[in-house]
Every structure is written in structure tokens, then in C-alpha cells.
Specification:
By secondary structure, this protein is mainly α. It folds into 4 domains: 180 residues, P-loop containing nucleotide triphosphate hydrolases (Rossmann fold, 3-Layer(aba) Sandwich), CATH 3.40.50; 133 residues, no CATH class; 155 residues, Sec63 N-terminal domain-like fold (Orthogonal Bundle), CATH 1.10.3380; 67 residues, DNA polymerase, domain 1, CATH 1.10.150. Helix content is 56%, strand content 6%. The chain has 27 helices and 9 strands. The chain has a 5-stranded parallel sheet, sandwiched between helices. Helix 3 packs antiparallel against helix 4, helix 18 crosses helix 19 and helix 21 runs antiparallel to helix 22. The chain is globular and about 75 Å long. The two termini are 42 Å apart.
DNA sequence: GTATGCTGCGTTTAGACAGCATGTC
DNA sequence: CTAAACGCAGCATAC
């Protein structure tokens, strides 16, 4: 039998608890399941307790997903898995019930290591390797090992705790000993992801007025702990230089007083070719940039340049640049969104001018793909090998609606682009009321991920409408707002009016609609009795009340309102 | 006949943070 | 420089 499973069972035999850290979700689920298979609960009280927890996790989503069922089944044995795909309510109950001692083993991905304190007698690391795109399976950072191992030992209950790392070979054993037991935790800092961070950082520093010119900028970055950590100051200079130029080209900042604030796409009637626009902008700024290049950023030489009396170039955020910074958008994303909004607006204007002919339509899918292809929406839903054909069809189907060009098939970004199509398709299904169980089966999105995606989408769409306001694209505000509500509730267009009522969400609105109550007016004309049969007495009364109509006292029937409500939620 | 186990091959692979507005029986 | 394990299908064996 697997050593991990042996150790887990032995822990249970001691009537203690353990966390098993696994390197993938599939592994966490499977390991937990394998352990659960071998567990036999004898104590009736424990059985009942476990059953109760199992049920409460099962009914978090209705209808339950296969993930819910799998979790629920093993909770019966006081075993659980834990990873980011779980619904947050399930995560919560698992954590609290583990604390209460009602769950004996949790098989988890690193979520649990980073999260709140969840001390335990024994930590078992099934594997200390993890897949990384670039290097295949590689050792996890020492710091992460320490975090996981640090869960072991509960000062309140135990004198000590155990952290056990499983090695598959003698070689691995030595390596683990050297690397994790003797090794020092590495610096947290990585050079890999500097650019996006720097983009945002730079813009926010300028927008907030902390940095007003290139002198201050140089000074600021030279002094930063971050710059110190980065080490290679010249490389940092280059990056800052590049970011500055990008921010300027995107119209988020203005250099010096050489030019008035760039008005971006404010005139509605005019077709804007964004590429040309950008080039123009770059031309205009060349002189300013040259000054900057020659003068700033030579951090080591900054004294020298000051002595030479070269003047500093002013840095100022534009109106839209400020808003981008406030919205906490990556400027690259913001630019992408703005370009897409430009395109939508162009289509709208064209449609106004010529009434005939085929117009390129902007649909919900257009916007959904737009937000799906941002950095913020990463990681996108991945297209599996067998799904490729399906999603090329989806792409074809929505081709005309897209607001960005399809990259070349051999482009490195092509995969990512296709994943944005799948992600958009996921949102599309969500706002057409497809259930979470189906979404998991068909698209491999788990409830936990769904929540994160929806939150991001909500934020991005909100940001879009804020940008649209500044760009004066008024005609896009309503569609964006509608889309935002649809995303939030996961509903189709047709039942939108019903959502204004308190206590009416995705499923209740659908119920009403299917009973022929499609609008607020329909509801006003319906009797409270009818509403009661659909939604139960309490909600029926509440709706009548919200509509400003007389509320008849609730009759006490065989079933109370409480029970009805329970059934619907 | 059904359940379980083994082998071989193709496929997949952790997580989390930002803003906003408002509410849940 | 630098994979490993899961899931599934197909087949063998146990009950």
C-alpha cells in the first residue's frame, strides 16, 4: 500500500489528524478517496456527525456537481480534499470541522499552506515536486515546504508535531534532506513578472503625484528596496524606460509640457485606426522620450547629470490614466479594453450612418471574449485536446462579433487566444443559466473557479463602463450594465426585469418566468395565491409588498414558509 | 455475470490579489 | 540542465 495512505491511516488509528499535501488537484482528490476507501467508522456518534457534514457539503450547490458528490461521499468517512476548485462554503465547513476534530484527514493542494492557521498533529507531503510549465516537474521552493511543515504541531494540544516528506528513492531522500531540511529559504523576489507590476506601479506613482518628474522617478526607484532586490539596475532602467514609453503611447501619461493631454477617441463620428493613432502619438513624443532616455534612469550616473544641469521631464497622468490607476487595472489590460470599446463605438457609429448592409454586431460574447483575454482573467479555462475542434467551431460561430483580431495560428499567443474563446463560452453559458453541474461536466470549470471568474468579470465590466464614461461612449453604458447584472446573477436577458425584486435570483426568476410571469406588470396582475404556489407564502407576500400592493396575511398551511424557502435554496 | 485489478497509453498539471456596491432566509 | 501521475480503455483474473 502507498506510504502516504499508510501514514494517514496510522494517524487515524492514533485518533489524531493529518493534512496530506499533494501536487495537483486530481492527486488530492484521488488520495483522499483512496484513504476514505480504507476507513471504517464504528462509532455511531461519529458516523452521524460525518453524515451531517457530508450532507451540508452536498447541498451547497443544487443540483450538486460531481465534485460535490465526490467530496460528500468521503466526508462520510471523515476524510476530505481541499483545493481552489471547491466552493468557498465547502472550504469553510471543511476547515472548521477539521478544527473541531470532525474531519480526520484533509488532502490538499498548497491552498491550505498559505491560508489561515490550521494546525495539525501530522503533515504529510506526498510529493515535494510540482509541475512548472518551463521545467517540467521541479522541486517546490524551500519556503513553501516550510509553510506546509509549519502546520504541524498544535501548541494547545500537543507537545510536538510531525512533518513527513515522502521520498520515492534513496536519491530523492538525500535531495530532500539537502534541499529542505538543510537548505535556507530563498529570496521571495523573482524577476520574471516585473513588467506588469512595474506598469501598474509606475502609473499609480505618477497618477497619485508621488512622482512628478523623471528626476523624482530615478530617485524613487534607486532608493526602493525593490530596486535593490532586483539587483541589475541597468536592466531595471531599461524596463522602466520601456514602461514609460508604453504608458505614454497608450495615453495614460503625458511627458513634459511639450504636448497637451492626448485626447483619446473623444470624437464619435470618426473612424480611428488605433495603430496609426499610436504611431502618431509615438512620433509626437519622440523628442520628449529622447530627453528622457538621455537624461533619466542612468541611476548610477544621476549625480553627474544633475551636475550637468540637464532638466528633468515632467510626468503627469491623463484623466483616463488616473482612472485606470484607480481601478487598479493593468495598463496593458486597460489599453486592450479601450481599443475594444473604440471598435464597438466605431461599429455603432457606422450603423447610424448607413442603414443598410450587414453590420458587424457587438454581442454579449464580444464583451465576454474581450475580458476573457486580459491578464486579470488568468488562468483562462484550458482547451483540452479533445475539445479543440469544438472550440474552433465556437470561434467561427462568433467570429464577426470579436473585437480583436485572431492572432496567427503559429503565434505563441494563439493557444491563449483560443483559451479566451473557451473562457468566453463559459461566461456565455453561465449567463444563459447553465447549471454548475453541467459547467463542470462540459467545460471542466469547478464551482470555486467559477466564483473567482465571475468576480473578475464583474470588476472588468465595471471598469469598462467607467472607461466608457470617460471616453464618452454613452451608448455602451446600458449594455455593459445589463451584462454586468447578467454575469452577477447568471441569467438570460429575458428574466432580467424580475431580478429587481429582493429575494429573487437566478432560479426563482426562472421559475416565475416559466409560469408566465415575465415582467413586473405580470407580477402585479397575478394573485398572491398564485405567487404562493410558485415561491411559497413568505416570498409571495414580500413581492406583493415590494410592488406596493396590499399584502394578504399569510395563511398557515401544512408546509411553513421556512420549509419552502429551504427547499428552494 | 459482476467486481476487481492490471497494463499501457494519452493527457494533464497550484494558487490568489485588485475595485465596487449591496445585500441573506 | 529539468517529469510524473492521473484517467481511461481494454483485457485478465477473482469471486
Amino acid at each position: 500500500m502507498d506510504d502516504t495512505i499508510k501514514l494517514a491511516l496510522e494517524t487515524i488509528a492514533q485518533d489524531k489528524q493529518a493534512i496530506v499535501f499533494c501536487s495537483s488537484r486530481a492527486s488530492a482528490e484521488k488520495t483522499a478517496e483512496d484513504i476514505a476507501k480504507k476507513v471504517i467508522l464504528t462509532n455511531q456518534e461519529r458516523k452521524d456527525q460525518a453524515k451531517e457534514i457530508s450532507n451540508s457539503c452536498l447541498k451547497v450547490i443544487s443540483p450538486p456537481t460531481k465534485q460535490c458528490k465526490r467530496l460528500s461521499a468521503m466526508l462520510t468517512k471523515q476524510i476530505a480534499f481541499h483545493h481552489s476548485g471547491l466552493h468557498s462554503k465547502q472550504k469553510d465547513t471543511i476547515e472548521t470541522e477539521f478544527k473541531h476534530g470532525n474531519i480526520k484527514i484533509i488532502c490538499a493542494t498548497p491552498t491550505l499552506a498559505a491560508g489561515l492557521s490550521l494546525p495539525v498533529f501530522r503533515v504529510i507531503c506526498k510529493s515535494l515536486k510540482r509541475f512548472t510549465g518551463r521545467f517540467g516537474m521541479s522541486w517546490i521552493p524551500t519556503l513553501e515546504y516550510l509553510q506546509m511543515a509549519g502546520r504541524a504541531g498544535r501548541p494547545e494540544y500537543e507537545d510536538f508535531g510531525e512533518a513527513i516528506a515522502i521520498a520515492k528513492t534513496q536519491n530523492e531522500k538525500d535531495e530532500i534532506y539537502q534541499r529542505y531540511i538543510c537548505g535556507k529559504p530563498e529570496e521571495i523576489y523573482s524577476k520574471l513578472n516585473v513588467e506588469p507590476v512595474l506598469r501598474m506601479y509606475l502609473l499609480s506613482l505618477i497618477a497619485s503625484g508621488i512622482i512628478r518628474d523623471t528626476d523624482q522617478m530615478s530617485e524613487f526607484f534607486a532608493k526602493t528596496f525593490w530596486a535593490h532586490q532586483f539587483g541589475d539596475l541597468e536592466e531595471l532602467e531599461e524596463i522602466i524606460q520601456r514602461m514609460l514609453k508604453l504608458l505614454e503611447g497608450w495615453g495614460f501619461i503625458v511627458l513634459g509640457d511639450l504636448k497637451k493631454e492626448q485626447k483619446r477617441s473623444l470624437s464619435l463620428g470618426k473612424q480611428k485606426n488605433s495603430k496609426n493613432q499610436k504611431e502618431d502619438a509615438n512620433d509626437l513624443f519622440t523628442s520628449a522620450l529622447e530627453i528622457v532616455s538621455n537624461k533619466t534612469m542612468k541611476l548610477e550616473k544621476s549625480k553627474e547629470s544633475k551636475d550637468n544641469g540637464v532638466f528633468s521631464v515632467q510626468l503627469r497622468a491623463t484623466k483616463i490614466g488616473k482612472r485606470v490607476s484607480e481601478l487598479y487595472l493593468d495598463p496593458l489590460t486597460a489599453n486592450h479594453l479601450i481599443e475594444c470599446l473604440d471598435k464597438v463605438q466605431y461599429r455603432i457609429d457606422q450603423a447610424k450612418n448607413q442603414s443598410t448592409g450587414d453590420q458587424l454586431k457587438t454581442t454579449a460574447f464580444s464583451y465576454l471574449q474581450m475580458i476573457s483575454n486580459t491578464l486579470e482573467m488568468r488562468p483562462r479555462l484550458r482547451i483540452k485536446v479533445k475539445e479543440q475542434e469544438y472550440y474552433s467551431n465556437v470561434l467561427l460561430q462568433h467570429y464577426e462579433e470579436l473585437l480583436q483580431e485572431e492572432p496567427d495560428v503559429f503565434d505563441l499567443n494563439y493557444n491563449d487566444f483560443m483559451n479566451s474563446i473557451k473562457t468566453a463560452e463559459f461566461f456565455q453559458k453561465w449567463i444563459n443559466e447553465v447549471g454548475e453541474d453541467v459547467l463542470l461536466d462540459e467545460m471542466n470549470v469547478r464551482p470555486g473557479e467559477i466564483r473567482v471568474k465571475l468576480e473578475n468579470a464583474n470588476w472588468l465590466i465595471y471598469s469598462c463602463s467607467e472607461l466608457a464614461k470617460i471616453l464618452n461612449y454613452k451608448s455602451q453604458l446600458a449594455p455593459l450594465q445589463r451584462l454586468r447584472i447578467r454575469i452577477k446573477f447568471g441569467v438570460s436577458e429575458e428574466i432580467l426585469p424580475l431580478l429587481k425584486l429582493k429575494g429573487v435570483g437566478r432560479s426563482r426568476a426562472r421559475k416565475l418566468f416559466n409560469q408566465g410571469l415575465k415582467t413586473i406588470v405580470d407580477l402585479k396582475n397575478s394573485s398572491q395565491t398564485d405567487l404562493t404556489t410558485i415561491l411559497g407564502p413568505k416570498l409571495a407576500a414580500s413581492i406583493k409588498d415590494q410592488l406596493g400592493q396590499k399584502v394578504e396575511p399569510i395563511k398557515k398551511g401544512k408546509r411553513t414558509g421556512q420549509m419552502n424557502l429551504g427547499k428552494f435554496t
